[in-house]
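Run folding on both entries below.
>entry_1
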Amino acid sequence: MKICITSQGNDLNSELDSRFGRCKYFIFLDTNTMQYEAVENLWRDAQQGAGTQAGQFVASKGVKALITGKIGPGAERVIKAAGIKVLEAHGKIIDVINKLQEEGK
């Protein structure tokens, strides 16, 4: 399954970024292969609408789930309209992924 994780860095050992629209990176991960791509969030410094624009970008990537800390109302509308499940988490990305796989989510 392809998922998106908000991240403070560009690899799986990075800390999850608690801010969706203003996170530093989006990590797009295939949970079946553990192959991933880190993409810098180009909207994090936007005056307004960062969450909505980031949400549209994430939705365009065809992910099934988003793992983040908090998500604002504008971004949440875009994400949910795309049928993407939102999971709140914190900590190191690799630890969050391992925990979710153990739980079978």
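>entry_2
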Amino acid sequence: MARIAFIADDLFEDSELRVPWDRLRQAGHETVLVGLEKGKQIRGKKQRETVTTDAAARDVTADDFDAVVVPGGYSPDHLRTDMDMVRLVRTAFTAGKPVAAVCHGPWMLIEADAIDGKTVTSSPSLKTDLINAGARWVDRQVVEDGNVITSRKPDDLEAFSDAILRHLGEEARARPDDSAGAEQGAGI
């Protein structure tokens, strides 16, 4: 099964972390919460989720993961100023691995130079930022353009999770499964 990095810091959108995290784990994938520091307790903006990071961005590489998920909230605005986080997302993107961002998560895709020429969606408040960065913005529940997956809001999380799972299924068919028996991430 796949190993997926979820990147987050304080004030992430609670459901945008929880719903895809749970769906991916239920499908048998390993999820790892990557933050600015290993073992840091972070809290969702709605105060419904408090989670502990499994790893620091400076201590991992895109080679450690099969995909990256960027929940929204205020977290992506903070994370995009950290060069190790940007490196992780950019390297995963350029390697052709699925990179999924929801709501305000596409801010990280802008910083990682992962949206120029791509069709994407997001929270409507990011529309101008994404267009200025070279993306074609559309108002849809989920958009898949190559290895980039984007969604607008918490109401879209089932479709967003389904898209990630589809991409991981394609990845699994493209390479042999060498992660049997991998330990699940401990942060959530």
